[in-house]
Amino acid sequence: MELAIKIFQFILSISILVVLHELGHFLPAKYFKTKVEKFYLFFDPWFSIAKKKIGETEYGIGWLPFGGYVKIAGMVDESMDTEQLKQPAQPWEFRAKPAWQRLIIMLGGVTVNFFLAWLIYTCLSLFNGETYTDLTKFENGVEVTEAGRKMGFQNGDKIISIDGKPNERLENASINILLGDNVTVLRDGKEVTFPVNTDGVAEVLKQKEAKLYISPRIPMVIDSLATPSSKASGLAVGDKVVGINGQKVSFFDQVSSVLSQNKGKTISVDVERNGAVQTIPTVSVDKNGKLGVKIDAKNLAKSITTNKQYSFGESIPRGFTRTIEALTMQVKQFKIMFNSKVQGYKNVGGPIAIVKNMPVNKAADGSIGINWPAFWSFTAMFSVWLAFLNLIPIPGLDGGHVIFTLYEIIVGKPVPQKVLENAQMIGVIFLLGLMLLIFGSDIFKVFTGKL
């Protein structure tokens, strides 16, 4: 059931984005009286699931859910149908239109993607507000994993800025750090700026723990006793662990470090109880280095969470800002994707990976449903991603057509037809190869248990 809901969300999101993207090409084409022969959701090699011709345009749904297309008469596109191009240009053909009109038609799709993301983010800010983990409320700084330490962090650091810009949201900061150059923290009362070590970034990506390598540093306050030995030890709910075997400790990470050195042993624990410190002389540590207690993390989570609400007037510029933030993040990802040391390209996921990570709501009774705010947030992010990808100047993408049209506007004469055809052929082959590589990588990861 969960998988079915995830697949449904993926198809729904892609369908919305593809239809609106192609509508961005379709509407200006029709406005400039250009013939549109086909309008398809998904691709239809060999056959289509459904199709119907209305006027001069065939509308249909293909079976290959990797995008969609509009086929505009007189245009060199992915169909590679060049027979029509051998005939003299007709007034209703794309190639017969002025360069500025062709440019508008080609930029229509990415324009719609950008404004769609802006609209979605605006609505999310207006109707749901934004709930985030507030770094400014991390009174004890952050706790970091081994990967975080490799990046340059230390337990207790308070994050001030990333690349000189303040970051108050953990959800954004954890990603921005991976994509950034340096981080400024408050460490032992002093501001320290250090470069982000790519060894740590590579480790984070390898372990797929982008949101886990930094977390709030938690005092070791016992919330419950989970094992018989812990209940018999003399420890009590509400105790704050402040020492082990005479060594001062205050936080969960410090306690964990000492316990890992005393696996299977008996230790003495100093706790703060009712405002006074007392010693529990014999407490057993199990073979995994655990005391058998749970810590009070729920109250901390509430105390560091901020929910920000926006008025109608505030939500519009906030929606724009979130769109730009999403776009900036997509661009920055190329920094680690093609870094030979980080090798971020190994973590690029295709449709299967996306489906697996689609958000769902899991109720207490075990029922599963769609998390609509998370769904729309994903759709907005993906809309920005599609806009960015389509602007890359590769023949076969909108960006390739835009580059050739801009060349014509600047130089004053069109690119030779044969050059356009050859470039389109190379672009299509490259994109198909890339698609097969990404999809094949997904399948390989599924069979090897890495996905």
Ordered list of secondary-structure elements with their pairings:
Elements (H helix, E strand, L loop, with lengths): L1 H30 L4 E8 L6 E5 L2 E5 L2 E9 L26 H29 L2 E4 L8 E3 L1 H6 L6 E5 L2 E2 L3 H10 L2 E6 L2 E6 L2 H10 L6 E3 L5 E4 L2 H5 L7 E5 L2 E2 L3 H9 L5 E8 L2 E9 L8 E3 L2 H6 L1 E4 L3 H26 L13 H6 L4 E2 L5 E2 L2 H20 L6 H14 L5 H31 L4
Parallel strand pairs: 1-3
Antiparallel strand pairs: 1-4, 2-3, 5-18, 6-11, 7-8, 7-9, 9-10, 12-17, 13-14, 13-15, 15-16, 19-20
Helix pairs in contact: 1-2, 1-11, 2-9, 2-11, 2-12, 4-9, 9-11
Number of domains: 3
Number of helical segments?
13
Q: Give the integer mean of the pLDDT values.
A: 86
Shape: elongated
Largest sheet: spatial strand order: 2-3-1-4
Which regions have little confidence, pLDDT < 50, spanning 5+ residues? none
Fraction of residues in β-strands: 15-25%
Helix content: 40-55%
Amino-to-carboxy terminus distance: 19 Å
Give an overview in words:
The chain is elongated, with a radius of gyration of 28 Å. The protein contains 13 helices and 20 strands. A 4-stranded mixed beta sheet has the order 2-3-1-4, with helices on one face. α1 (2-31) crosses α2. The protein is an alpha+beta fold.
In short:
This protein is of the alpha+beta class and 451 residues long.
Keywords, separated by commas or semicolons:
single chain; 451 residues; alpha+beta; Pdz3 Domain; four-stranded mixed sheet; four-stranded antiparallel sheet; 13 helices; 45% helix; elongated
